[in-house]
Write a structure and sequence with these properties.
Layout lengths: L2 H4 L12 H6 L2 H8 L2 H16 L21
């Protein structure tokens, strides 16, 4: 399953808050502390893919082989 499909946004759960209310509300902190390390890393990877894009075909490192001959003097 694709990460974007797995974490589809539930728009009925969105709450609008002021910055002051957000800092007073610890629910985000409690939510992330309740998640395992693997779940937090997976969420971080999802955010990375959303921000920078992800294409499996082009995301691999390019390998270059260069043969250097030793000059004997």
């Amino acid at each position: 399953m694709d990460l974007l499909e797995k974490y589809r946004l539930d728009r009925t759960k969105i709450q609008v808050m002021t910055v002051k209310e957000m800092h007073a509300d610890n629910s985000d902190l409690e939510f992330w502390r309740s998640k395992s390390l693997d779940e937090r890393i997976e969420a971080m990877e999802l955010l990375r893919q959303i921000n920078y894009g992800y294409d499996a075909a082009t995301s691999r490192l390019q390998r270059v082989l260069e043969i250097a001959e030793l000059e004997i003097s």
